[in-house]
Amino acid sequence: MPEALPYGYWTFGNQNGLYGAESTVQTLSDGRKVIRKDPDYPSVLESEFILFAVDNDLNARRQFLALLPTMDPVSQQRLNNLMSKYPNYFLNELDDLTLSDNIQRKQVTAGIYLEKPKPLT
To answer: What is the pLDDT of residues 20-48, one digit of tens each?
Structure first.
C-alpha cells in the first residue's frame, strides 16, 4: 500500500509545494531571464505551476483552499496575492444543476445552428 502524502496533491519531495514567498524574475546583462527565489522563504513550486494546477485539477483547487489557512504568514500572503490577481482560477466548483443547465444550453444553441434554412418559395 502506498504511503499517504502529507500535503495531498501539493506534496512535493515531502514538502508542502505551496510554501514560500514570491520569486522574482531578473534580467541578466546578456538578456536572459532567471528566477530568483527569496533567500529566507524560497518557494517550493512557482506561481505559474500553482495556477496551472488549480485551473486544471479540481482536487488541486480543493486542497489548495483547504491548506491555505494552515500556511505560515509569508506563504499565505503570496497565495492570497495570487488569488487576488487571478480570481478566475479559484472559482468555486459548479453544482450538478448548474452544470446540467450549461450543457443543455450548449446543446440547444448547437441545434439552432445545425438546422438548414428553409428554401424561400
So the answer is: 999 998 999 999 999 999 999 999 999 99
